[in-house]
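Q: Hi! First time asking for a complex rather than a single chain. Here are the components, and I think there are two in total. Is that enough to go on?
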Amino acid sequence: MSDTMNPTHAPASHARWTEDPVLTVEHLTMRFGGLTAIDDLSFSVGRGDITALIGPNGAGKTTVFNCVTGFYKPTEGRILLRRGAKPSDAAIAELTRSGRQYDRDGENGIYLLERMNDFRITAIAGVARTFQNIRLFGGMTVLENLLVAQHNHLMRASGYTIGGLIGLPGWRREAERAKDKAIAWLERIDLIDRADDPAADLAYGDQRRLEIARAMCTDPRLLCLDEPAAGLNPRESSELNDLLRSIRDRDGVSVLLIEHDMGVVMQISDHIVVLDYGKKIADGAAAAVRDDPKVIAAYLGVDDEEVDEVEEALHQNDPQGSANAQLGEGDRA
Amino acid sequence: MEYFLQQLINGITLGSIYGLIAIGYTMVYGIIGMINFAHGEVFMIGAFIALTAFLALAALGVTFLPLVLLIILAVAMLFTAVWGWTIERVAYRPLRGSFRLAPLITAIGMSIFLQNFVQVTQGARVKPLPPQIQGGITLMDGPGGIVVQLSYMQLIIIALTIALMIGFSLIISKTSLGRQQRACEQDRKMASLLGVNVDRTISLTFVMGAGLAAVAGTMYLLYYGVIDFYIGFIAGVKAFTAAVLGGIGSLPGAMLGGLAIGLIETFWSGYFSVEYKDVAAFSILAIVLIFMPSGLLGRPEVEKV
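A: Yes, that's all I need. Here is the structure of the assembled complex.
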C-alpha cells in the first residue's frame, strides 16, 4: 500500500525518523496559565521525509509549530535540530548542559531550538515556516518577496549596505546570485511572468506556492508548513503535492506539515504523527496510522469509552495492539 | 510677483528642513508604528554637534569653507546617528512588545530628558554663529526695488535635500537593507521568520532618521545662525505635522508635507501676520485631515479581516 502512495520514495521499511532524525521533540509541554496545550509530547522528523502532523481542531498542532519556530518558549522539553552527520548522544547531552544555544562544526551542527529566538532559528538553525493565513509582503513585488528571504547573504556581502551603495564587485556578484536563485524558484513555481507584480495581486493558489518558495529561499534544512493545502482547488492541491515532493527529492529538505486534507496527507506523507488534546495518539507510516482505531475515533468524535472498547477488541486480537504501528510497518493493517 | 517668488524660495528652504526631519518621524512610524517624540530633540542635538564641530575646527585653524562644511556635516551626522541608535536601544527596544502607549510615554520622557540635558550641559542661552555663507544669486531685480534673491545658503539647503531624498529613495527601493525595512514595515513577525534581524533593521532606521535630522540641524544652524536647547520642540512639532499631513509612513509624503508646512508658514507670514503663521499651518492640517484622513500621500488603513 505504501508503495503506491510514495511512488518516488522508498517505502517505510525502516523508520528514518528513529534512525536519522532531523528534528527531535522530546517531552514538550506548553501551558498557558491553567491550560495545557501540549502535554509531554515526543516525536521525531526523519531527514528527507515528509512528516505530517495531524489531529482534530484544537489538538495543539500549531502550538507545536510555534514552539519549534520560537514564537513560544516551551514550558518544558527539548527541541533538537541536527544538521549533517549524526551527533553522539554525549555531544547532545553536553550541549544541553552547557546552556549554549547550538554547536556547529562546518556542515554539522546541533541546535536547541527552545533556546533560540525566531530570526536565529531561521538564519542559523535553518528552519523555515509558513502560516495558515497567507503572510506575503503584499506591497512588494513577487521577486522582492524572494529576495528578502536571502538578505542575510546580501547584507554580509554588501558590508551592511555601505559596500552595496558604492557597488563593490563582491556585492554585485552576490546580488546576481540571489536574483538567479529567486528566478529559478519563480520558474519552478510557474510565476516567472508575474515577477514584477505586487504579491498581493496574485491568485490565492499562486500566493501559497510563492510563500513556500520564499521559505525555501532561506536555505532551510527543515520546512514547516501550516496547512499549505487549505483553500486550494483539486488541481492546485495536486500541484502543491508535486512541489512538496520535489522539495523533498530535489532539494533534500525535510518537510513537517500540518494538514487537514487527508487526501494530501495520505498521498505525500512518509510519516504521520497524530495529536489529540495535546497528546500524541499515533505515530507511524501513513497506512498504519490511517487504520489506527484511536485516530479514527479522534477524527470521528467517538466517546472515550467507545475508544476503549475498540482498543480492547483490538488487544484481544493482537496483544501488542497499536503499539506496533509506531514501528511504521505499513503492511500491518 | 517678485515678493511672491521670494516667499516661495524662503518657503521651499524652510520646507526642506521640515521635510528632512519629517522623514525620521515617518520612517520610524512606518516600521514600528510609534511616534518618536524625541526626534525633534535629535534634530536639536544635531545642530549642537555641528556647532561644536565648527568651533573645534575654528580652534584648529581650519577655515577653508567647503572643507569645514563637509566635516561638520559628516561629524554631525555620525554623532547624531549614535545618539539615535542609543535612544532606541535604551528607551524603546526594552519596551517593544509592551502595550502601545508605553513607548509613546518613554518617547515624551526622552524628549524632556534630552532638552534638559542639553540645557544643563550647554547652558540655556542662545548660541549664535556668525553667517558663514554669504551672497547669492539675484534672480530678478524688480522695479519697486524688490530683489528676488536665492542665497547660496538656500541653494545648498535645497540641493542637499534633493540629493538626500534621491539617495534615500534608492536605498529604500533598491538595496537589501531597504527591502528589509519594507518587509519589517509590512509584517515584522514574518520578516523575522525569514531570518531578517528585525531589531537591527529597526536600529538602522533610527540611525538613518537621526542622520537626516543632523543634516537638518546643521542647515538650521547655518541658515538661522542661532540655536538653543528648545529649537527641537517647535521644529519637531512642525515636522511631525508635516509627516501627518503628507501621510505618515510615506517617504515622499513626508517631504511633500514638509514643503507644504514651510510654504504655508512663509506665505502666511509674508501676506498676513507672522504671529498667526502656526495657526494657519495647523488649521490647514486640520482641514486636510478632515477630508483626507490618511494624509496627502498616505495609504488608507485597511482593517485586516
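A: Chain A has two domains: 12-126+220-286, 137-218. Let me know if you'd like any chain examined more closely.
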